[in-house]
Design goal:
Layout: H1 4-56, H2 64-78, H3 81-108, H4 126-131, H5 134-149, H6 155-173, H7 196-223
Length: 225
């Protein structure tokens, strides 16, 4: 009787055992990283909140990026795939644009789309501006968790609902000159071309259809499990 079949079975078993062992080790490493990250993340948020509250006021936390900062922190502790997916569909593309603008200005010292001008405003303390660097690591964490957990396709609808709660709150409760979430105009200042109500209605429609829907299709293709 040939020994080759036995050798093949042994080789196959060894290969499978190695794969399983490597996957188990990778899972342990990822779990360890996640456990450490959530504590570091929590400490960062606990530092940021009072500083932002004093310098920018409570209305600043209605920015979608700030909401995402809190939501990702909750997702790290609860391991909520839906929550991380909502933030991915809601702010990931905006955070990527923020980073492009920031690093372009950092490298060239020239303005691109004026989204991150405040990061180079020397009237603001370096510490205060440094806290805003959460815009850099936030999309990286979101993408990492999408790779790890996958994209929940229900996120598009939940993020749409959340947006239609946040935008009216922003419109009616915050200072128009702060123009949080651009509910009063594109850019730093309120717009004067369209009637205020019409512009706000367009913003309510634009976020879900112009930002969330394309993001939903891309995330669904790349990260759905």
């Amino acid at each position: 009787m040939s020994k080759f079949p036995t050798l093949k079975v042994y080789a196959s078993c060894t290969y499978l055992y190695t794969i399983v062992a490597l996957k188990r080790k990778a899972f342990q490493i990822m779990t360890s990283i996640l456990n450490k990250l959530k504590f570091i993340y929590l400490i960062f948020v606990l530092i940021l909140v009072p500083v932002y509250w004093i310098n920018y006021g409570p209305g600043n936390f209605l920015w979608f990026s700030d909401i995402a900062l809190f939501a990702v922190g909750i997702a790290l502790w609860t391991r909520s795939r839906l929550l991380i997916s909502m933030m991915a569909v809601g702010v990931l593309i905006l955070e990527i644009i923020w980073n492009i603008d920031f690093f372009f200005q950092l490298i060239t010292r020239s303005e691109l789309i004026n989204l991150t001008n405040y990061m180079f405003n020397e009237e603001l303390s370096l510490f205060l501006r440094g806290l805003s660097l959460f815009h850099v690591f936030l999309p990286a964490i979101v993408i990492w968790l999408l790779i790890k957990w996958g994209y929940d396709t229900k996120a598009f609808y939940y993020q749409w609902a959340l947006t239609w709660i946040v935008l009216p709150l922003t419109y009616f409760l915050t200072n128009p000159q702060e123009n949080i979430n651009w509910v009063h105009g594109l850019g730093d200042k309120p717009q004067t071309v369209l009637p205020k109500g019409l512009y706000f209605a367009l913003v309510m429609i634009a976020f879900p259809l112009a930002i969330y829907l394309p993001s939903h299709f891309v995330l669904k293709k790349l990260f759905k499990k």
